[in-house]
Amino acid sequence: MEYINKYPKKDSKVVSKIIGEQTMAILVDEKPVGKDQVYIFNSTGTKFWELIDGKRNVEEIIKLMCGAFEVDYEKAKKETIEFITDLSKKRLISI
Amino acid sequence: MRKNNELRLSFLGVSISLIINQPAIFKKGISLYSPYISTKKPDITINVNYADPVKYISKGKLVYQTDQWTLKKENNSFFFSCFGEYPAAAHFELDLNTKPVDFFSLDEEGHVLFFAFLPWVALGRLLNKRLAVMIHSSGVIEKGKSYLFVGPSGSGKTTIASLRGSNRVLLEDSYIVIKKNNSRFEMLPHPWGKNRVKLVSQDGVIVNKIFFVEHGKKNFIIPIDGVIALKKLMKENLFYNFWDNGAIEKSLDFCTELLGKVRCYRLGFVPNESVWNFLSSYFKA
To answer: Complex ipTM, two decimals?
Structure first.
């Protein structure tokens, strides 16, 4: 799927907290097992998480990640799309 | 005004009114919980109906289950069902105080009411509004220090707590309430624990250390902090928030502050007295 012009948005069922350089996100979902919805992001994931606000498109997020971590565009694009795809599969964001 | 068939209990500011028409259940409640009888205005009311629960069991969507009971949801209502030796059912809304909870059982001893529904569902749900959380854990006091052993069923928290030396007191071996008292975090057994220590008041003891326990081939300990510790703690608290974003945010803030004050460790152990000697040596070093 081509994400570049999409505006990813955190799901309303997610509660998150940034602690230091890491983030914990909880999917407040109704599941029989109830305990598999707690996720941790490292410092890179935390930066992504901060930038995902429903107002920035993926292209803008990639450029901001280039600046934040001093990486080239292609590498930032690859990592951004991988992360967004993963978050989408976990239903933490909608695209 | 309290009614004649009303048993009103209060714990850490949470007041629960039980309207019980069956005399044996009422008597049992009085005998079990006399230290917690209160006149405080109730936060929730539970109508305890002496009736066959079978017709009240919902066919809604399963949202949680343990080996003893299930929770189903249909529209905005929750349905609690307990099977086995003491069948029971209950019907309630997400906000427990919007209308009375209806509880149904033919058990005159009130096993499910007093030892499952009240502590796990009603109290757990309400406590997080009162600067307190309930954690799936055991609590032990040794030589004036109090330790919390956290973990899912089968992790060993009951085992380690049951290794009782002469200097150790078991607070509770399944669920511990953590409350904030000014800037201190204290732990105490919830009032419906079968193995609870009889406390003379609802004051707790300061939490000195938190251990996330697991069985091991040898004893080991690893300090952990930050989100790793928070994730482990939240996993053992999450259920009580009933998929309520606001309640989970409160719990998250509470647990973050707790972990900022109390050191946490991952503790692997072999199930014998050596783990206590190991801990003693580790913290002396």
So the answer is: 0.79
